[in-house]
Write a structure and sequence with these properties.
This protein is α/β, with parallel strands linked by helices. The protein has helices at 3-9, 22-36, 41-54, 108-123, 128-134, 138-148; strands at residues 13-17, 59-61, 63-65, 79-90, 96-104. β2 and β3 form a beta hairpin. It starts with a helix and ends in a 15-residue tail after the last helix. It comes from Lactococcus muris.
Length: 163
Amino acid sequence: MNLMQSLKENDSICLGLRAQNWAEAIKLSVKPLIDSGAVTEAYYHAILELTEKYGPYYILMPGMAMPHARPEAGVNRTAFSLISLTEPVTFSDGKEVSVLLTLAAISSEIHTSVAIPQIVALFELENSIERLVAAKHKEEIFKMLEESKSNPFLQELNLDRKI
């Protein structure tokens, strides 16, 4: 699944949001996927339960998290959402996050071979977190995603295939 295609199809970019805590931030990041039918509300609860049990395992870099749970926890189809927060939320390990890119994958293979490379490419862009937090319009996000396609890591992937 192509990250940009998924964000457009699911109308799942929400910028400049406010959250009181990490759990509310997760809820805000999963809501567009629930609204689009990509996941059920059980997916949100699964992420919360896993976070309580294992800590915020999905914080990939300073300022950025990729909340996700197992496919059987309510995933109907592979999809992504991206939200930015005006103020970061602090997780139990003390790390602060301002950008959440939620992943719902129908299989673990999609998670590692399709989703992660695209996310890495986006966040390898110079000042990616700052640019995402500063973005006021979805078009700015799409422009960054287009820019990230030149990452050599993505050249071998056929991201336009349907999964």
